[in-house]
Automatic annotation (TrEMBL):
Pfam family, one: WHD_DnaB
Protein known as: DnaD domain protein
Record-annotated membrane-spanning stretches: none
Native species: Limosilactobacillus pontis
Entry's family note: Belongs to the DnaB/DnaD family.
Length: 451
């Protein structure tokens, strides 16, 4: 994760690539990554790749302002694009400060194989939401088009092992040659990055108790625990609802858990989230005089919905729908873990319902979220109070904005009126004197003679 909060055009940057970047697939990047990344991050990646040079050194650094020119985008667009690339695990960002200033090193990573992409619960769920079930199934069929259809359990692997075919001098294995040692020291395999952390608020024993006596293999659930918890984090699905979805995803012939069917069920319907047995709704202090009755009603809704479900409920009221980009914005806020779900819901309500925006914009949402984090907002009530404070400050000093304060509201454009409009009506309608009229006629006559 970058130490700096935003993209700095005056900082230097270098582009490197991981050792396995040779396995990068443009086709996989286009089919699997682009729908989730979006066009800005997609083009930014290829702009970074064009900057790769052999054996890069610190002397090869360039100003990041050149990157803005190359992608023909603004600072915020590039910053958001980098966040998306990092979140998808396709770019790793490193930072250092040296005698020449700040330096960012962007290390490009290889794409996952289609099979590993499908196996990653978070990535496959986001892709399914972005492209829909039909396109998702077409990608799966194309990825596995060369695999033998049907049951393969009767096939036995009779392949020869390495030492059955090749002979290696045992002395070379004991005393590894210098060239091999040198090549091994050059390799610095990075630990695999997890795109999502396991949830601490999901009561797994309760889920097991709810499924007790059901025809579902316990080993299946253990193998797919990460998938189940990812869906819980994204949609706030509680244990009873999760148990119902799992029962609906069982293969009736084998009673095995069907992960693909489970993903389709969750993606097809965003369910209202009941309060989990492991969570207690945050209570708004009754003596807080800053909150109105309507505020308290709103906070009850923000406590009872997961962010994506809450956004969909708002969109249904306004006649809109949740876009893939909006899901990505909320997913990023959830993964970051700094703002609780009720605070995120208040933010969503403010942008969509109060301001009347059609969609959630990543840069705008980030500006508000950062402002609330600096103000110490930790619950829905605090978020509403922060909004009230902002509006009060704005009314008291409409022409003077505090340093570092984000203007959430739309700017009120005022036209500069000409000086003559400031005169009173009598001065504007006063008739000219006879002497003034004579001078005006004389000037016009002189102009005609000169012409």
């Amino acid at each position: 994760m970058k130490t700096a909060p935003s993209f700095d055009p005056q900082a230097g940057y270098l582009v490197t690539a991981a050792a396995d970047f040779i396995n990068f697939s443009d086709q996989t990047f286009t089919d699997f990554y682009q729908p989730v990344l979006g066009p800005a991050a997609f083009s930014l990646f290829y702009a970074l790749r064009s900057q790769l040079v052999d054996a890069p050194t610190l002397a090869d650094r360039r100003l990041q302002s050149n990157l803005l020119v190359q992608v023909n985008a603004g600072q915020r667009q590039v910053d958001e694009g980098l966040c998306r690339l990092e979140g998808m695990g396709i770019v790793s960002t490193y930072f250092q400060h040296d005698a020449q200033g700040d330096l960012y090193v962007y290390e490009l990573q290889a794409t996952l194989t289609p099979e590993r992409f499908f196996a990653d619960n978070l990535l496959s769920v986001l892709l399914l939401e972005a492209i829909g079930e039909s396109a998702f199934q077409r990608l799966a069929k194309r990825a596995y088009r060369y695999r033998l259809a049907g049951d393969q359990s009767h096939l036995k692997d009779i392949s020869h092992h390495f030492l059955d075919t090749y002979q290696v001098d045992q002395r070379e294995l004991v005393n590894v040659p210098a060239a091999v040692k040198q090549a091994q020291t050059m390799a610095s395999p990075a630990p695999s990055r997890s795109l999502v952390t396991t949830s601490d608020d999901f009561d797994w024993p309760t889920l097991m108790a709810l499924l007790k006596g059901q025809p579902v293999a316990q080993d299946d659930l253990a193998d797919h625990r990460e998938l189940i918890e990812v869906e819980h984090q994204l949609y706030g699905i509680d244990e009873p609802t999760m148990a119902r979805l799992i029962r609906g995803a069982l293969d009736l012939a084998t009673n095995h858990f069907d992960a693909k069917k489970f993903k389709r069920q969750v993606a097809a319907s965003y369910k209202r989230v009941a309060e989990s047995s492991s969570q207690t709704a945050k209570q708004v202090p009754s003596d807080d005089k800053q909150l109105t009755t309507k505020d308290r009603q709103l906070l009850k809704s923000t406590d009872n919905y997961a962010p994506i479900a809450f956004l969909q409920a708002l969109k249904e009221q306004t006649g809109g729908y949740v876009t893939a980009g909006e899901r990505n914005v909320l997913t990023r806020l959830i993964q970051d873990g700094k703002l609780p779900s009720p605070v995120i819901n208040v933010l969503v309500w403010y942008v969509i319902a109060d301001l009347g925006n059609a969609t959630l914009k990543g840069n705008f949402v980030d500006a508000i979220a950062n402002d609330w984090l600096r103000a110490g907002v930790h619950d829905g009530a605090g978020a509403l109070i922060q909004l009230k404070k902002f509006n009060q400050d704005r009314q008291q000093a409409p022409t003077k904005r505090k340093s570092g304060q984000h203007g959430y509201r739309r700017m009120e454009v005022r036209e500069t009126m000409p000086d003559w409009s400031k005169q009173d009506k009598a001065a504007r309608t006063k008739k000219a004197s006879a002497a003034a009229l004579a001078k005006a006629r004389a000037r016009q006559a002189n102009k005609r003679k000169e012409g």
